[in-house]
Amino acid sequence: MCGIFAIVTQSEQLLGLKLLNAGRRLSYRGYDSVGCATISKNGTIDLRKDAGKIEEVSERLNFSDMQGNRGIIQLRWATFGDPSTENAQPHIDSDGDIVGAHNGNVVNNIELRNQFIEDGFTVRSTNDGESCVHAVERYINQGMDFIEAIRFAYNDLAGDYAFVVGGTNDTCLYAIKKGTGLVVGLGDDFTCVSSDMPSILPLTRKVMRVLDGEIVTLYPDKVEIRRVEDGSTVQREIETVVENMESVQKGGYPHFMLKEIHEQPTVAGELLRLLERSNQLQPMLEKMKNARNLYLVGCGTSYHACILGSVFISQLSGKASIPVLAPQFIAQYGPSLTKNDAGIFVSQSGETKDVLNAVKESEEKEMPVLGLVNVIGSTLTQVSEYYLTLACGYEISVPATKTFLNQVIAFLYMAMRMGNRPTNSLNTLPHLMQHALDIVEPQIAAIESHLLDWDDLYCVGYGATYPIALEGALKLKEITYAHCEGMLSTEFKHGPLSAVTDGYPVIYVAGPEDIPIIVSGINEVTCRGGYAIAIGEEDPRLKVNSSYTVTIPHSDQQINAILSVLPLQLLSYRLSVARGIDPDFPRNLSKTLTVD
């Protein structure tokens, strides 16, 4: 989840400190490397960058000493290329007279790099930000000005990104938006542009929003916006921002958890585009198909993703796989592991100690290690033979939301590919997720009061919704402090049914093919005075038998399971806030567990 900030000033000055402060205000987004570039009126570019945290890198490379009348700072969250000096942004072109940086993912990066190398460009990294620079360079070399070069480069760069670029033979900076955030700030003697508002507000509260397919030209005293499709100018009103800094960092949401819940359709789309062009995917699939035993290993939320992944792989490819908690993996399967097996190790951070312990056991038995991880450059990416990135950016709130969704989407995509099924049906998933969020929020608000005072409840599912029920129960435990047990719906009658009293809440997550068996369980609860909440597609059987129904959009059995977790995330969030708990930082919990 990179962050960029760029500024154009009226006079040559020490820009380093302004750029450094802007970078600091973007650091909450998460990053693994940082770089700073200034352009002076005499036509020189000063570029300093490295992997590491902004305070350490800026002190070691003396960012505050950098001078010029144009400058760019970028904080990089690794997607293409490991964290390193070479892959850190900004990047320069072949001749060193154009510099630029981006935020987002250019999903055809590998193909573009190959083109540029073949055409004789000087390619110094494996990072997609460099491909943005060379894409502009290619058309500058053909005699185009920056606006025309950017217009042509825009069509070459697939994916979602915002990109800022400038050259020594020019006096402006230029920025382009395609699918990810970009906002302009206007001061008395400068203009600036950033991927996020917090880096701008201490400098000016006058801003302009940039839309997809628009190019911004930054002069020191004005900005111009043009449409990429035809180069025509756009008139845009200047806004005055009144929100405080904390509110802006959260995108206007009261908590990071709610912001991250609503980011899920966007990051799902980014992941699908990355998977379509991943050079790691096919070798991973071959290892999975040929494995004698295929293990899916994780902890907590990631383990729930593994269970659902196992369901998807079996349903869509006919391949059996074994989901297992990482600490139990060693005791239960360690003695029987061989080089003919394979394991997918799942971790948001890539540093989860229990998972890395299981990896070590696998390495000792020469079993192939495959990774599903959000943080590139983490230990898990370094020890994996092949890995897939989750493309979620930084997740600040302790409860995992968007990382869980992208884990299960990755498993679904792999299962479809293993079963030789077309994956284009997943193209509608981000839209379905957004529609689900839109229609579910008011439904969840209607049951909040009934559940608020219950400190004991159940969340149950069947088949593909069983791991969703586990995940929903975990979210309720994490941030409401109520005891919610997740379980298989058919197991409820084997003991837990005794807990049901008048009004006792049980949440049922119903897949479209499992409604008859779910209805049976619902009636076992309601006939004893319990309060049964059903989450599922519009179906008269759920409506007539349940105490309350939460309706999600129509889809197939696999996508239904993915959509079903959204109401549970929102329910957990609302109950947490209603109880006066900060859902971002629940007591006793850490985002990354690096201890046994």
Describe the structure.
By secondary structure, the chain is α/β, with parallel strands linked by helices. It has three domains: 247 residues, Glutamine Phosphoribosylpyrophosphate, subunit 1, domain 1 (4-Layer Sandwich), CATH 3.60.20; 169 residues, Rossmann fold, CATH 3.40.50; 157 residues, 3-Layer(aba) Sandwich (Rossmann fold). The protein has 19 helices and 25 strands. The strands form four sheets. An eight-stranded antiparallel β-sheet has the order 3-2-4-1-10-9-11-15, with helices on one face. Strands 5-6-7-8-12-13-14 form a seven-stranded antiparallel β-sheet. The longest helix is centred in the C-terminal third of the chain and has 23 residues. It is globular.
Structural features:
596 residues; alpha/beta; Glutamine Phosphoribosylpyrophosphate, subunit 1, domain 1; Rossmann fold; 3 domains; eight-stranded antiparallel beta sheet; seven-stranded antiparallel beta sheet; globular
Write the layout of secondary structure elements.
Layout: E1 3-14, H1 16-26, E2 33-39, E3 45-51, H2 54-61, E4 67-76, E5 91-92, E6 98-106, H3 109-118, H4 128-140, H5 146-156, E7 159-167, E8 173-178, E9 183-186, E10 190-194, E11 206-209, E12 214-218, E13 223-227, E14 233-234, E15 239-240, H6 245-249, H7 256-262, H8 264-277, H9 281-290, E16 294-298, H10 300-317, E17 322-325, H11 326-333, E18 342-347, H12 353-364, E19 369-373, H13 379-383, E20 386-389, H14 402-418, H15 429-451, E21 456-461, H16 466-480, E22 483-488, E23 505-509, H17 515-526, E24 531-537, H18 540-545, E25 548-552, H19 557-578
Parallel strand pairs: 16-17, 16-18, 18-19, 19-20, 21-22, 21-23, 23-24, 24-25
Antiparallel strand pairs: 1-4, 1-10, 2-3, 2-4, 5-6, 6-7, 7-8, 8-12, 9-10, 9-11, 11-15, 12-13, 13-14
